[in-house]
C-alpha cells in the first residue's frame, strides 16, 4: 500500500510538471495574438579579455546603446564570451548582460570553446595564482538568469536547454563544446544523449503548434568548399547527423558562430546563420525580426562603430595576421589538401621536415596574402559579388610567383602554360568557382519557419 502511494505521488509530480510545461507552451503560442512580431539580436564571439581595455569597454558600451536604440526584445549570444575563460571575466560579462536584462531585454547564452576549462587562463595565473578557468557548473551558475532559469526543458548530459522566446517561438540552445575531460578543445560534438533529449523536447513544442529556432557555437552546414576537410574544428563533429536531426524536427534556422565570419549556408530547408566576431573584422551583429503571423525570420547586419575608421583598422589587422594563421592551418592539413589536388603520396613521403619548412615559408610569403584576401571576402560576406575573372588572375599570379622560385626566368613561360593545363590547377580553379558561386545572401536574409 505504501509503495502504491509513493508511486502515485511520483506520478502526480510528473503530471503536474508536464501540465506546467504545457501551460507555458500554450501561453507562449497564445501570445502571438498580443505580440505579432519579435525583434532579436544575435551576437557571437565577444572574446572579452581579462584586463580592462578601453577599446573593449567602448565596444560593449556602443553595442549596448545600439541594442537599446533598435528596441531589441531578445539577445542571443552564441558563445565565446570570455577569451581566456577566467571567472572574473565571465562575471564582468554577466554584469553587462545583466544591465541589458534589467532594461527589459531577455538574454539567452550558450558556451563557446573558449568559455569552459580553458588552459589559456594559466598565462594569467603567474601574476595571480587564484585565477582559474570556470567549470561547467560555474558557467551555469554565472549565466543562470540568461537562459537556464527560463528553460522549460534542460539536458542532463550538457548545458543545453529549451526556452520560450515569445510569439509562439522557442529557442533550442545547444551546447556542443567538449570540456568533460578537463582540457581545451576547439572542435565540438553533440552527445547522443543530447540528441535524444533534443528530439523529445522539440516534439513537445511542435506537437502543440509552436516553432523552434536553434543556437549552437559550432557550424552545422559547410560554409565554404572544403571547410570540413581543411578546417573541421569549426563544424560540429557529427554535423551531417545534426543537420538531419534538426531538419527532421522541422527546425529551419540555427544561429552559429565560432569561425568569425558573416555567412549564411543552406542544406535543404535548414539555414545555418553564422554571426561574425565582435573582436575582429568585420565586427558585426545581426538583427532578426520574427513575423509571427507569416512565420518568417528577416535578418539584417549592423556594424557598431567604436570610433571613426574602426572597421578599416580591423581590416588592416586581419590582412597582417591572417597569412601566418592560414599557413599554419593549411600546413597542418597538407596531406588532405594534397589528396584533393591529386598530388602523389610519394611526393609527401619523400619530403623532409626542412623541405616543409621551406615550402611553408614560401607559401606564407607568396600565396597566403592572396588567399587571405579571398578568405576575407568570406568573412565580410556576399563573396558572390566579386569578379571571378579578376580573383582567378590574382590567384594564378600568386601560384606562378611561388613556383617561379624554383625556375630560371626563361623557363617561366613554359611553366605557366603547363600549370594552366594541369589537373592540379583545374581542381583549384573549380574550387574558386564554387567559392565565389555561393549566392545565398549573407548580410540580409529571409527564412520561412513553415
Describe the structure.
With 450 residues, the protein is an alpha/beta fold. Helix content is 45%, strand content 15%. The strands form two sheets. It has a seven-stranded mixed β-sheet. A hairpin with a 4-residue loop joins strand 11 (285-291) and strand 12 (296-302). The longest helix has 29 residues, at 2-30. It is globular, with a radius of gyration of 24 Å. Residues 1-11, 13-17 and 28-34 have low confidence and may be disordered.
Radius of gyration: 24 Å
Question: What portion of residues belong to β-strands?
Answer: 5-15%
**Cross-sheet strand order for the largest sheet:** 4-5-6-7-8-10-9
Parts with pLDDT < 50 across at least 5 consecutive residues? 1-11, 13-17, 28-34
Give the overall pLDDT as a whole number: 86
The structure class reads alpha/beta
What is the element string, with H for helices and E for strands? HEHEHEHEEEHEHHEEEEEHHHHHHHE
Ordered list of secondary-structure elements with their pairings:
Blueprint: H1 2-30, E1 37-43, H2 54-69, E2 74-77, H3 87-102, E3 106-109, H4 136-142, E4 153-154, E5 161-166, E6 169-174, H5 192-206, E7 211-216, H6 227-230, H7 239-248, E8 253-256, E9 263-267, E10 270-274, E11 285-291, E12 296-302, H8 310-332, H9 334-340, H10 345-350, H11 353-380, H12 388-403, H13 412-421, H14 423-436, E13 445-448
Parallel strand pairs: 1-2, 2-3, 6-7, 7-8, 8-10
Antiparallel strand pairs: 1-11, 4-5, 5-6, 9-10, 11-12, 12-13
Helix pairs in contact: 8-11, 11-12
